[in-house]
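ARCHIVE RECORD
Type: protein–small molecule complex
Small molecule: guanosine-5'-monophosphate
Source of inputs: curated submission
Record status: active
Notes field left blank by submitter.
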Amino acid sequence: MYDDNNIFAKILRKEIPCDKVYEDEFSLFFKDINPQAKIHILGIPKFQSTTFSEFLKKADNNIILSFFKSVQIVIDHLNIEKDGYRLITNSGENGGQEVPHFHIHILAGEKIGGLR
Ligand code: 5GP
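STRUCTURE (tokenized, with ligand):
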């Protein structure tokens, strides 16, 4: 069950601010408040889903495609494709997910260490 009071839902409703990197009809990308690398961006779909699996199962294909295309738009915008980057999505308790709104971490700008 999606919890409408999670932090990212509040960011989407503009109830709390974020350091925005990119936004379109379906997605919002912003800087992580506690960066684990020189570049640490969070990408969230505007669609209400708790995890990656729920997003893939419940969202329409155009929303899913748009979200993942926008990940690449941000990668291009940050100019990190050549040097490399890491995409992470944590899911559920065993995955260590803290915020229950599906999101992707984009980590870059330096060699990314072990699993976080
Ligand atoms: P998770 O562990 O759920 O995959 O990651 C949640 C991420 O959200 C963490 O990296 C954490 O630093 C970040 N975060 C938590 N609260 C806020 C917030 O209010 N603003 C921003 N920009 N990031 C947040």
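CURATOR ANNOTATION: The pocket of guanosine-5'-monophosphate is lined by residues 7, 18, 30-34, 42, 90, 96-99 (CB under 6 Å).
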